[in-house]
What we know:
Layout: E1 16-19, H1 26-33, E2 39-41, H2 53-58, H3 74-85, H4 90-102, H5 108-119, E3 123-127, H6 135-144, E4 149-154, H7 157-167, H8 174-193, E5 200-204, H9 205-210, H10 212-223, H11 229-235, H12 257-261, H13 284-296
Parallel strand pairs: 1-3, 1-4, 2-3, 4-5
Amino acid sequence: xxxxxxxxxxxxxxxxxxxxxxxxxxxxxAAMIGSHPQLYGFPELILFDYATIGERLDAPPRIGKRxxxxxxxxxxxRALAQLHDGDQGPASIAAAKRWVEAHRDSTGAAVFDHLLDxxxxxxxxxxxxxxxxxxxxxxxVLAACPDARFIHLTRHPVTTxxxxxVRWMTFNRPEVFTSSWLNQHRRISAFCxxxxxxxxxxxxxxxxxxxxxxxxxxxxxxxAVRDDDQALEAxxxxxxxxxxxxxxxDALGGNDPQFLRAPAPHPVELPPTLDHPREWNLPDDLLADxxxxxxxxxxxxxxxxxxxASL
Length: 311
């Protein structure tokens, strides 16, 4: 089987794509937005990292060796099982994996079309940190979905770096993680700057989690979907998503493990300044560049008033 569509129409659907590096609270924020009654939140599909599904299937992990039971499309398998069969049990997951294998020559765009058609008329919402790993990936998703709405999702550079150090158990390389924050957000900013102004918006993850009533309403209005209290209340409960769990043994994961273990949203730290810990000994030029970009995201301004996680 080669492709799902001989001549796909890239303007057939207009999904919502979150663009954010790893450890940006992207799992919970994407799940919250995708819990809107007019939207559908997918797990991490990772469809635009390579040109075809087969290339992703055959590629080694970016870091380390393939662990036992490694499967590169866990989120995709869970989504296909849920949408094809209505559950994510072992038999449905096995069928989903066979479907993926049968479509290894298909592009990620064609597979995404298939998923978007399955959830229509709901609007699909997707985020995969791999999408922001390079300009090629970003332009691949834009070519696939030229009418998509893009959300540039940010997190404070200090808390992001701390989270990355904990995630990778690497506490002696803060410069690497701080540089990663800078480079990836520069890449996303440059990509968004080429889009029409109304096609993208900047969202600070801390605002979604600490003041959800305000920020979720703003996002809903930007997407031109319902912004009534009932719709916003649904967005405050990503734990109700069929993908808000660790999954079965044959499809464990598909999103950030911490989110899958405790998917209910909660307030998060928002440092009052852009000061980095002195013991990190970061170069002055790096600190200046990070401060400049973070200031453009609003991290030099006071936090919005806190509100409860539920309306």
